[in-house]
Design goal:
The complex is a heterodimer of chains A (about 180) and B (about 260). With about 180 residues, chain A is mostly helical. Chain A has helices at about 5-15, 20-155, 160-179. Chain B has one domain (about 15-255). Chain B has 8 helices and no strands. Chain B has helices at about 1-5, 35-55, 60-85, 90-105, 120-145, 145-155, 165-210, 210-255. The chains are: A mainly alpha (about 180), B mainly alpha (about 260). Chain B: Belongs to the ATPase A chain family. Chain B: InterPro entries: ATP_synth_F0_asu, ATP_synth_F0_asu_AS, ATP_synth_F0_asu_bact/mt, F0_ATP_A_sf. Chain B: One of its GO terms (cellular component) is proton-transporting ATP synthase complex.
Chain lengths: ~180, ~260
Amino acid sequence: MLNPKLSNFAAGGELNPLVPHTAELIAGLIAFILLFLVLRAKVVPMFEKAFAERTDAIAGGIERAEKAQRDAEIALSKYTSQLSDAQGEAQKIREDARVQGAAIIEELRTKAQEEAARITAAASASIEAERQQAITSLRNEVGTLATELASKIVGEALDDQVRQSRIVDRFIAELEKSK
Amino acid sequence: MILLAAEDEGFQPPGVADFNLPPIFGDNPYTTKPIFLAFLSVILISVFFIAASRKALIMPSKLQFAGESVYGFVRNNLGQEIIGHQFMRFVPYLFTLFTFILTNNIFGIVPFLQFPTMSRVSFPYVLALITFVVFHYVGIRHKGLLAYIKEIMFPPGVPKPIYVILTPIEISTYLLVRPLTLSLRLFANMFAGHLLLLVFFLGGDHLLQGVIGLKLVAPFAFAFGIALTFFEFIVQCLQAYIFTLLTAMFIAGALADEH
């Protein structure tokens, strides 16, 4: 480019396209710097602001969505645990009730059996007592009757208590033997 | 075009002269068309992006979305991905570079403007010079002057004798090849593209003035010129991208620590 032949040619005919013109160099520099200052001051910050705000908006939206998701998950797990607690409690209550019911039935049964046993025992005792009483009174009456009858039959007064009693015993023994 | 009208004897193919536009107001060299286009691009880009970014809504309007798409492309694909975690410091520069080059390139196919500013080599020189200063400054600030120079001259992990060849190559790469290729790639693409369009449109125009047989061929020249216009659009976008991409890579290289 700095070949002397070319330079001469350029100087002579102003036709070498590789030789710069001072006016254009200066004008080009001024134009470029002017544009640079305008774009740097007015355009780049505004676009950057728009980009930053957009990024912010998108990132903020995602963050909010994530937070909502987290909240929902927490609520869900809370409800789930509450539900399972309630189910467990219900199960426990049912179990308790069953056990309690069984215990009550058992207790009632025992009580009834005891009562029955008691009634049976009382009845047997009273029957026994009555039987004894009946035997005693029967013995006395039968003795008296038999003595009276025998005295009437044999015509012999059997007032003597000892004899009378011996006779009655023998009579009853015979009676039981013949039975 | 002036030449064309003046000469009757034949077709004067478009050439370097078509890029040397005279000043619009008298002899003032600051009133040429490329300079007006450069400042027009400053106004258009500023107005568009200020309007697009003014409200900075979370839910962008169509205008804001359009502006954000361009900004986000430079910020993320050219800044963040290539430079890494310190990228935000360089986003305003990369963004200005990309929009400035893209707009001025596209001026090449905008009706009535129809001149790519970057086909004037001065503008790519200026931009490459700024990139040159920026990435060397960043490297020196990041590593210290001596360490930075040492890293350029003696890249680590190379056998000692190789430095005989490598050091001159590295020095010329960092000091000469990078800014030159950066500017000349952009310049040459825009220059050649504009020249191609001129050839087909001026040539087609010339064919129309010829005999009947040539008049019939003229539409093909125009059709090809229109097809090339679309092609040029791709090249214009691509060159703006490449210039910004390489700038980002140079900065990334200056920031990168030794492996």
